[in-house]
C-alpha cells in the first residue's frame, strides 16, 4: 500500500502528520527533517491504541507514546535495516529516554527502493 | 555425604526407599544445557558443605540418560531440583538459582541453618523456565551473561512475556510470525529480569523489545523481521545458514 501511495504522488517532498501534532510529534518531525532531508515523511500517532495496555498504564505520557513513522531518504542508501533503524533511534534518543516515547514502528526506504517496480 | 551420581533406576529406587526420614535432594541435569555446567559444581559444593549431615542425601541424575526417572517426576526443563522426604515431594525448583536451592534445603532439613559455602555465580535461566534473582553483577559479568543468553539457541527471542502469554502486542506479533514459519526458537521474558532488560538495550544498541537474535547476531525488532520476510520468504533459513 505504501508503494502504491507514493506512485500517485508527485516528486515534491511530502509531509504527513497529525492534524494537531503535540510537542513530541513536532520535535520528531523537525529532527528528522533537519537530519535526513527526507523526500517523504509520514508520522501517525498510535498512542491511543495502546493507552490502556498493561505496559503503558500509569505512565506519564500516554498521548504521545507510540508512533508509526515512514521515511524515504537517501541517507538510508547502502545501510542494512538494523542500521537504518538505529539512525532513527539515535536521533530520537531524547524522546525515547526522557520524553516517554515507548515504541516506534519504522519503515525506512530510499527513493530507488520505492520506485522499484515489483 | 557428597553427591551420588545415579547410574540406574534400581539404584535410584534403592536409595530413595532406604530411609523414610532422610531429606533427599534430586538434581536433574543434562550434558548440553549451559546453566547445568554451573549448577553441577554448585550442587557438589553444597553437598560437600553438608557432608557431615547424615540426614540429607544428594542425588544427581542425568535427565537424558535416565529419562524414565525424569518422566516419573515430569521434569521437562533443566536444571531442576526436587526435595523429597518419605516419598513425598516437598519442593520443586526450576532454573539455576543457587540461593533459592540453599534456602529450600535449609527450610526442610532437620539440622539448624548452616552456612552453605556455595559459590555465587550469576544466576542463569533454564532454557524453558526461568526464576532469575537480582544479583550484584559487574557490567562485564552482565555482558558475559548476555553473550550466553543471545547464543542459548540458534534463534533467540527477547520478548515481553512468554510465547504462551505475551505482554505486548509487538511481542505477540513476532511470536506469531515465528510460529507461522514453524521456526524453533528459544525465548527470554525480559519483564522477569530488569538487568537483562536494560543491559540488552545497550548490548544490542537497540532501545525496544522484542529483539530477535539469530546465531548470536542481532537481527532487529518486529518491523525489520516483517520487512525481511517480505523481501525474502526464506529469511530465517538463510540467516541460520549464514551464521552457522
List keywords for this structure.
heterodimer, A: 118 residues, alpha/beta, GMP Synthetase, Chain A, domain 3, 4-stranded mixed sheet, 4 strands, 39% helix, B: 244 residues, Glutaredoxin, 5-stranded mixed sheet, 40% helix
Structure, briefly:
The complex is a heterodimer of chains A (118) and B (244). Chain A is an alpha/beta fold.
CATH topology of the largest domain in chain B: Glutaredoxin
Mean pLDDT of chain B: 83
Rg from alpha-carbon coordinates of chain A: 15 Å
Q: In CATH's first tier, which class of chain A applies?
A: Alpha Beta
| Overall number of domains of chain A | 1
Protein name (chain A): Bola-like protein
Organism (chain A): Spathaspora passalidarum (strain NRRL Y-27907 / 11-Y1)
Family (chain A): Belongs to the BolA/IbaG family.
InterPro entries (chain A): BolA (IPR002634), BolA-like_sf (IPR036065)
3D structure, described in words:
The complex is a heterodimer of chains A (118) and B (244). Chain A is built from six helices and four strands. With 118 residues, chain A is of the alpha/beta class. Helices cover 40% and strands 20% of the residues of chain B. Chain B has 244 residues and is an alpha/beta fold. Chain B has two domains: 126 residues, Glutaredoxin; 105 residues, 3-Layer(aba) Sandwich (Glutaredoxin). In chain B, the strands form three sheets. Chain B has a five-stranded mixed beta sheet. A four-stranded mixed beta sheet of chain B has the order 9-6-10-11. At the A-B interface, helix 4, helix 5 and strand 4 of A face strand 11 and helix 8 of B. Chain A: Belongs to the BolA/IbaG family. Chain A: Pfam families: BolA (PF01722). Chain A: One of its GO terms (biological process) is [4Fe-4S] cluster assembly. Chain A: It comes from Spathaspora passalidarum (strain NRRL Y-27907 / 11-Y1).
Amino acid at each position: 500500500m505504501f508503494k502504491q501511495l507514493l506512485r500517485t504522488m508527485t516528486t515534491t517532498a511530502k509531509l504527513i502528520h497529525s492534524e494537531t501534532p503535540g510537542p513530541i510529534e513536532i520535535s520528531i518531525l523537525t529532527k528528522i527533517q533537519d537530519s535526513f532531508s527526507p523526500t517523504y515523511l509520514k508520522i501517525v500517532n498510535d498512542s491511543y491504541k495502546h493507552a490502556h495496555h498493561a505496559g503503558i498504564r500509569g505512565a506519564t505520557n500516554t498521548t504521545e507514546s507510540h508512533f508509526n513513522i515512514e521515511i524515504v531518504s537517501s541517507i538510508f542508501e547502502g545501510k542494512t535495516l538494523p542500521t537504518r533503524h538505529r539512525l532513527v533511534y539515535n536521533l530520537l534518543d531524547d524522546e525515547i529516554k526522557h520524553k516517554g516515547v515507548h515504541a516506534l514502528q519504522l519503515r525506512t526506504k530510499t527513493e530507488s527502493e520505492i520506485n522499484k517496480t515489483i | 555425604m557428597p553427591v551420588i551420581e545415579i547410574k540406574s533406576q534400581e539404584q535410584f529406587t534403592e536409595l530413595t526407599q532406604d530411609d523414610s526420614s532422610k531429606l533427599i535432594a534430586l538434581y536433574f541435569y543434562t550434558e548440553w544445557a549451559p546453566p547445568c555446567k554451573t549448577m553441577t559444581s554448585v550442587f557438589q559444593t553444597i553437598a560437600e558443605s553438608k557432608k557431615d549431615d547424615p540426614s540429607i542425601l544428594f542425588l544427581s541424575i542425568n535427565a537424558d540418560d535416565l529419562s524414565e526417572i525424569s518422566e516419573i517426576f515430569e521434569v521437562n526443563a533443566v536444571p531442576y531440583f526436587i526435595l523429597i522426604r518419605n516419598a513425598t515431594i516437598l519442593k520443586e525448583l526450576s532454573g539455576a538459582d543457587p540461593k533459592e536451592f540453599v534456602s529450600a534445603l535449609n527450610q526442610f532439613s532437620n539440622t539448624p541453618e548452616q552456612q552453605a559455602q556455595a559459590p555465587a555465580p550469576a544466576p542463569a535461566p533454564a532454557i524453558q523456565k526461568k526464576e532469575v534473582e537480582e544479583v550484584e553483577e559487574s557490567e562485564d559479568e552482565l555482558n558475559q551473561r548476555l553473550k550466553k543468553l543471545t547464543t542459548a539457541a540458534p534463534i533467540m527471542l527477547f520478548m515481553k512475556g512468554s510465547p504462551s502469554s505475551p505482554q505486548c502486542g509487538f511481542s505477540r506479533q513476532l511470536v506469531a510470525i515465528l510460529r507461522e514459519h514453524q521456526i524453533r526458537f528459544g525465548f527470554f521474558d525480559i519483564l522477569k529480569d530488569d538487568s537483562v532488560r536494560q543491559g540488552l538495550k545497550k548490548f544490542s544498541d537497540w532501545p525496544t523489545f522484542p529483539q530477535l537474535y539469530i546465531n548470536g547476531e542481532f537481527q532487529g525488532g518486529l518491523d525489520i523481521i516483517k520487512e525481511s520476510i517480505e523481501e525474502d520468504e526464506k529469511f530465517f533459513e538463510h540467516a541460520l545458514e549464514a551464521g552457522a
